[in-house]
Amino acid sequence: MALGKRYEIYLPIEYNPDEQGNRLPIEEEKFEQTYEELWQEFRGVTVMPESENQAFRGFWFDEFGELFRDKVVTAIVYATDINKSDSSFGKQLIFTRKGSNRKRF
Fold it and tell me: Which domain does 77 fall in, by range?
């Protein structure tokens, strides 16, 4: 593999809880659309793990100290193009993906 930068994009597999605390699964089409966009941009994408039964668990605090928990899959891409390997591209990728993923997920 050529040298470059690795980017990991964490995608939740469930929507935020409703008022009763229930979480519905995110539709598969949304993942497929995201993966397609990534493989077109980077000429490949790896998704880990493959199923929600094996999903990674994430925990974090928001700015008010509230604990959030999520199950996620990770989409991994490698930027081998020199223009996509610098830090300014990485910042732009994060900003752009975060925006479109928030709308989608």
Answer: 5-16+23-104
Count of C-beta atoms within a 10 Å radius of residue 79: 20
Amino acid at 37: E
CATH number, position 58: 3.30.70
Render pLDDT for 44-64 as a digit per residue (tens, 0 to 9). Answer: 899 998 765 678 888 889 899
CB-based contact 56:81 (threshold 8 Å): no
Q: How do beta strands 5-12 and 46-48 pair?
A: unpaired
Name the pTM for this structure.
0.71
Q: How many domains does the chain have?
A: 1
Nearest to 43, CA basis, from 75, 7, 83, 79 = 79
Tokens of 63: 């700015």
